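Hi V.,

Quick status before I head out on leave. The structure for the redesign project is tokenized and pasted below; the design run finished overnight.
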């Protein structure tokens, strides 16, 4: 029986990405698994943060909050949940510079699209990407779109954002985006406020495009407390939303970024240069329970101030003038200089979190100074060859030059001073090779199969806490293989992304402790295997659906860890906090005018809380939904996140031993948008 499908309003165009090659490319031609989320799709779904934005992306699990504070996010890609294993890029610039992704200061307002690359990017981004790249692209000046939005939410939450083009100045098209948020949490001593302004400018100069951007953001966070584990589960002594931080605890980053770039089209293709400088200043005071004693818990507090300067330079040339071939060649340089100064102190607190001491009122036990400098330089080249109508090859190679230096000084009051320094210089090749075969093609539809190999490395994460060990850890190394498919049917109304992978890692960095303070260490060998499947369908002109499923098997291959003085071999154990199964389903009804609605359903499988695999957290399902009305100039909508109000453990603290952050509670937003 023939099935009549309603014709789409227009045949969807092929999605173009720049994340993998630094030049516009049809993503179905890439020997890698990618997803593109258009800004309008995010707005139709009421997405406000990385978790809601990437909720329907296969192979990715985003947890809001974590050690970076409630405005931050902890991502998992390919089964690895490590705070610096992925690369966050905003408008072409590594956001967090030479150190760790700075999710707390990133804004998703006025977004044009988000590109997600699963797996390493060893050629274009080198030693700063490991398991994936998330590239956030904001609207360009002169786009013409303007809006003002106001929001009110539960837990005394509110928001305001606006974006609009400004009058031209000195030949520049100009655009201003501003947003401010107040997010309350179910823990009445935890919340965050964020204020952000972005001024973007674009001018045609000598036939090319010159950009000049300024971005400034200030975040004030009152952090939540992770819940300690006892035996096989979270401690029953800890009430829901109990906060063991000192009164006035904070994790407050401010960041100012200046970007400029120039792109010049040429007969052979184009050349581009880009430069960025960022300064970040973070003031932190917080505490963690260290012993579940009675009648009061014992806790340890930390007071630090961290300053970070980052410089990023890139220049590359694109060559498209040779028939059936594409080339990219370039060089980049990433410099980071960071310092942290602070100390620790001890205190006690009631089991329900009451009677917390005031931040700054307790004298420090120590005085710790950490200074780190990192330099990432690279020469890279990429080539793609369309050998036949059906077969395409690509390969890339990068020479990495990495220099790191670290010096520490730690004074334990009454116990003396320790100091030291270390330096590590590394020169290493990284690269990738792949092939794409068009198995079937008809009109705009096709099925393309791909295979790829990637080899990469990454210097170990930098801990700007109070880890006064001067030693620089060994670089992490990775080797991965992919087999997958890109498919499009029914005039691209039905699309498929499939990826099967294996990734072997050496010297993975994991949290540990040193002299009672949180630290990091290398963890031998690990293997990550899995399958990611993503389907997108345009069921009717205004109804779209997305579904994703992931099977991740993340295990230790060779890692001996000391537990209470007993060396324990963890070979064969699953990585902690990595669900074996992830699944999601989303529906959106979004006509140009009239009633709008959406719903997302997310399944998170069972995961071990510990490396010994003795504490298994059960699977859970959360869902969100929204309804509204859209007119030509305005829109009103009501959105709810985590409507099932699940409070399961979803992220492990790297600052407190065996302690876990819960999923944020239910939140409802009422939003009104005015457009011109």
């Amino acid at each position: 029986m023939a099935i009549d499908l309603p014709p789409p309003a227009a045949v969807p165009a092929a999605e173009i990405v720049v994340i993998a090659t630094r030049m516009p490319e049809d993503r179905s031609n890439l020997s890698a698994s990618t997803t593109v989320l258009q800004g309008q799709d995010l707005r139709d779904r009421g997405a406000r943060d990385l978790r809601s934005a990437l909720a329907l992306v296969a192979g990715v699990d985003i947890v809001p909050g974590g050690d970076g504070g409630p405005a931050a996010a902890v991502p998992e890609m390919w089964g690895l949940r490590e705070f610096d294993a992925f690369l966050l890029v905003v408008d072409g610039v590594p956001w967090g510079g030479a150190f760790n992704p700075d999710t707390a200061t990133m804004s998703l307002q006025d977004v044009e699209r988000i590109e997600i690359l699963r797996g390493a990017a060893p050629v274009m981004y080198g030693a700063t990407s490991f398991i994936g790249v998330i590239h956030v692209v904001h609207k360009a000046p002169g786009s013409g779109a303007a809006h003002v939005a106001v929001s009110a939410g539960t837990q005394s939450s509110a928001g305001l954002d606006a974006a609009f083009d400004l009058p031209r100045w000195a030949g520049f098209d100009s655009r201003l985006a501003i947003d401010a948020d107040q997010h309350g949490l179910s823990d009445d001593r935890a919340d965050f406020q964020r204020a952000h302004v972005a001024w973007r400018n674009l001018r045609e100069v000598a036939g090319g495009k010159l950009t000049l951007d300024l971005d400034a953001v200030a975040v004030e966070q009152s952090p939540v407390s992770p819940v300690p584990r006892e035996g096989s589960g979270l401690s029953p002594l800890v009430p829901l939303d109990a906060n063991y931080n000192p009164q006035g605890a904070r994790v407050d980053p401010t960041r100012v970024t200046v970007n400029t770039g120039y792109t010049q089209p040429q007969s052979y293709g184009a050349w581009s240069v880009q430069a960025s400088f960022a300064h970040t200043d973070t003031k932190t005071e917080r505490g963690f329970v260290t012993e579940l004693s009675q009648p009061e818990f014992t806790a340890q507090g930390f007071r630090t101030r961290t300053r970070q300067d980052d410089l990023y330079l890139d220049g590359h040339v694109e060559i498209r003038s040779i028939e059936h071939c594409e080339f990219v060649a370039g060089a980049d340089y990433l410099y980071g200089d960071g310092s942290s100064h602070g100390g620790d102190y001890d205190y006690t607190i009631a089991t329900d979190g009451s009677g917390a001491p005031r931040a700054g009122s307790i004298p420090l036990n120590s005085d710790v100074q950490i200074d780190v400098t990192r330099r990432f330089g690279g020469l890279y080249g990429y080539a793609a060859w369309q050998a036949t109508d059906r077969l395409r090859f690509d390969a890339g190679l990068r020479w990495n030059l990495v220099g790191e230096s670290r010096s520490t000084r730690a004074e334990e009051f009454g116990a003396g001073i320790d100091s030291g320094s270390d330096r590590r210089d590394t020169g290493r090749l990284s690269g990738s090779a792949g092939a794409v075969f068009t198995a079937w093609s008809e009109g705009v539809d096709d099925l393309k199969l791909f295979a790829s190999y990637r080899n990469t490395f990454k210097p170990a994460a930098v801990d700007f806490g109070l880890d006064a060990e001067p030693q620089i850890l060994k670089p992490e190394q990775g080797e991965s293989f992919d087999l997958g498919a890109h498919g499009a049917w029914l005039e691209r109304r039905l699309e498929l992304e499939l990826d099967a992978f294996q990734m072997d890692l050496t010297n993975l960095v994991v949290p540990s402790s040193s002299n009672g303070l949180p630290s990091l260490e290398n963890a031998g060998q690990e293997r990550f295997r899995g399958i990611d499947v993503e389907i997108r369908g345009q069921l009717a002109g205004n109804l779209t659906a997305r579904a994703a499923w992931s099977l991740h098997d993340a295990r230790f291959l060779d890692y001996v860890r000391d537990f209470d003085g007993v060396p324990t071999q963890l070979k064969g154990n699953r990585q902690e906090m990595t669900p074996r199964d992830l699944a999601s389903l989303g529906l959106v009804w979004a006509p140009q005018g009239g009633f709008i609605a959406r719903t997302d359903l997310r399944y998170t499988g069972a995961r071990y809380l510990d490396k010994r695999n003795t504490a298994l957290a059960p699977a859970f399902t959360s869902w969100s939904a929204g309804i509204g009305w859209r007119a030509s100039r305005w829109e009103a909508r009501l959105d709810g996140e985590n409507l099932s109000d699940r409070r399961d453990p979803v992220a492990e603290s790297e600052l407190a031993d065996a302690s876990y952050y819960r999923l944020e509670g239910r939140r409802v937003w009422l939003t009104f948008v005015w457009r011109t």
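Above is the designed sequence. The helical segments are 39-44, 50-53.

G. will cover questions while I'm gone.

Best,
W.
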